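Hello again,

I reread your note about wanting to compare the complex against the isolated chains. To keep things tidy I'm splitting this into two emails, and this first one only covers the full assembly. Below are the input lines as submitted, including protein chains and any nucleic acid or small-molecule components. They are followed by the predicted structure of everything together. The single-chain runs will come separately.
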Amino acid sequence: MNNPPRLTALVTGGSRGIGAAVAKQLAKDGYSVIFTYVSKPDEANAVAAHIMAEGGEAQAVRLDVSDRAAVPAFFKEHIEGKVELEVLVNNAGITKDGLLVRMKDEDWDRVIGVNLTGAFTCLREAAKIMMKRRSGRIINMVSVVAQMGNAGQANYVAAKAGLVGLTKSASVELAPRGVTVNAVAPGFIETDMTAVLPDAAKAAFLEQIPLKRPGTAEDVAAAVSYLASPGAAYVTGQVLAVNGGLHR
Amino acid sequence: MSVAEKVKEIIVDQLGVSADEVLPEAKFVDDLGADSLDLTELIMAMEEEFGVEIADEDAQKIVKVQDAISYVEAKKG
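Full-complex prediction:
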């Protein structure tokens, strides 16, 4: 990679799970990776160190995407005029599960705030930059539950389904400027987020997966890598499901 | 550089038109070939350059090159 300065990929929520796998994969693909984290600086630094040990470029920055003032400040400090932002992966996500009749307002607000509003705020800032560059890839991490619904996750499902809608609208608005916007919808993936599910719930999911195994973070990262690649230039407004056949 | 010159420069840059087309009476859509996304980018570029905020209602009234110049001049007072 001696060519012009590396293009940059920004991955939100990159310290672990799918985000960490995506950050590592995009670094392998030749991007200089900036990824954000909130609560796990040690894990974030370990991901950055891993990437750099393999000859890639990575930087971990603390950012709560639900903080409406912090996101534009982050873009000013780290992105605008500093790097060539080609890829944004809106991956930061949280769950606060509970049956809807018992769901607290703050659990609703927090999940919508991170998963949907956070993605919107990052997308808006990135779009301004990518529109000027006449080039860019925005990839939103959604979930199979956005397509299926899921008991106990009304807030998470609503946020992810909202993110599917945001993906489709943004794809239409940004297409004239050469910016594609797609979503990746993972199924049941082995991460910290799914580790907390009761065994019975995990078994029930596994039973329904035609490929008879849970997905890995790397399975999802490969899909993101494709959508960021030159080969996906004509793909926009799509939801790419990576779910072992769980939902068709 | 005067406000008028700076505005014209932004228009040339954003719309990819030549400077001699950017006459005061030139309309962004009809004469300079701008679409709605171009107009939005133009407004955003002016906001950034002049440090002003242009409300959507005001932006809709900016139809010609002179409208943009007059708007910024009035705002900068």
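For quick reference: Chain B touches chain A at residues 35, 37, 41, 44 (CB under 8 Å).

B.
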